């Protein structure tokens, strides 16, 4: 017999709609676990739905496949990038995979600046897919397999709620899901297209300290119309401060206010730069106190 914790019973009988939705979701997952049922592929939670996608209907030995953790968010709500900015925390995933399969890290699409005055966060709203590469060994166990994951997140607007869901995808896919693969593949391709690439070898990035600011210059070989700098490391820049962005003949320059939590100067400022034309690149700008104060014209 499944014993439901008393606090859930109380919560489900309360007048709080959010409380009832959260507790009902927990009870459903407890019932599934107790009965040995498979976890669902899709779970609805307060202010979002989370689901697993795949770019192919079955496992091919020796061939990687892509899974996507898809968040469909209610308007006005957001989740976070790997560096959340002023507050929050990124989604995490714990995998339970059969022998012969191994999951890589989340491939993070370039984020957006989300202003929740006086804070600025880095994250996503709307419909978000976080891709994960699954490596398959040359030999696979016979029969059906299940790809299971425990996904945790923080979803925020003017308040924040933590969430958790156990989701599962059977492979080969059952007939009722195979028709969804082309759409899932398109969503995964779009998400991977937004993942920042390594900066080309021909680019040059450098940083210098000027009083309360860091100045990061990125030479791309052409005049950039603008951009946004997203730091990969926390507590280096003031996330909520406006960024001064200056195009120059061979690239773009960012003036970034230092964080008041910065204790020592970093060896380099690492970040993602989002440029016009939906281009995003990972850059590492060595910090050199001897760099000339002369501005590139």
Task: Describe the fold and architecture.
By secondary structure, this protein is mainly β. It has three domains: 36 residues; 157 residues, Immunoglobulin-like; 89 residues, Immunoglobulin-like, CATH 2.60.40. Helices cover 14% and strands 45% of the residues. The chain is built from four helices and 19 strands. The strands form five sheets. A five-stranded antiparallel β-sheet has the order 1-2-3-9-6. Strand 16 and strand 17 form a beta hairpin. Helix 1 packs across helix 2. The longest helix is centred in the first third of the chain and has 19 residues. The protein is globular, with a radius of gyration of 22 Å. It starts with 5 loop residues before the first helix and ends in an 11-residue tail after the last strand. The relative contact order is 0.14.
Give the topology, please.
Layout: H1 6-12, H2 17-35, E1 42-45, E2 48-54, E3 65-73, E4 78-85, E5 92-96, E6 101-106, E7 112-116, E8 119-125, E9 127-136, E10 145-156, E11 160-171, H3 175-178, H4 181-193, E12 197-198, E13 204-210, E14 213-219, E15 228-231, E16 244-248, E17 251-257, E18 268-275, E19 279-286
Parallel strand pairs: 12-19
Antiparallel strand pairs: 1-2, 2-3, 3-9, 4-8, 5-10, 6-9, 7-8, 10-11, 13-14, 14-17, 15-18, 16-17, 18-19
Helix pairs in contact: 1-2
């Amino acid at each position: 017999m499944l014993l439901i914790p008393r606090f859930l019973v109380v919560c489900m009988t309360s007048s709080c709609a959010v409380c009832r939705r959260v507790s009902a979701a927990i009870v459903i997952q407890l019932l599934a676990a107790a009965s040995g049922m498979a976890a669902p592929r899709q779970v609805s939670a307060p202010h979002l739905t989370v689901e697993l996608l795949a770019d192919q209907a079955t496992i091919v030995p020796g061939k990687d496949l892509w899974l996507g953790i898809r968040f469909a968010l209610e308007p006005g709500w957001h989740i976070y990038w790997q560096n959340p900015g002023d507050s929050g925390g990124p989604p995490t995933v714990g995998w339970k995979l059969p022998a012969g399969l191994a999951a890589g890290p989340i491939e993070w699409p370039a984020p957006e600046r989300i202003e929740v005055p006086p804070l600025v966060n880095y994250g996503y709203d709307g419909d978000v897919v976080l891709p994960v590469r699954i490596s398959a060994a040359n030999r696979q166990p016979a029969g059906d397999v299940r790809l299971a994951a425990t996904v945790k997140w923080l979803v925020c607007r003017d308040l924040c709620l933590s969430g958790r869901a156990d989701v599962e995808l059977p492979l080969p896919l059952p007939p009722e899901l195979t028709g969804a693969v082309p759409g899932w593949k398109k969503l995964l391709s779009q998400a991977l297209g937004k993942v920042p690439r390594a900066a080309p070898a021909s680019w040059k990035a450098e940083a210098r300290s000027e009083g309360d600011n860091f100045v990061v210059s990125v030479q791309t070989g052409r005049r950039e119309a603008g951009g946004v700098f997203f730091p990969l490391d926390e507590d280096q820049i003031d996330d909520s401060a406006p960024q001064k962005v200056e195009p120059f003949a061979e690239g773009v320059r960012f003036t970034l206010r230092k964080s008041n939590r910065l204790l020592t100067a970093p060896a380099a400022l690492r970040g993602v730069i989002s440029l016009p034309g939906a281009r995003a690149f990972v850059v590492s700008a060595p910090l050199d106190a001897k760099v000339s104060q002369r501005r590139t014209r």
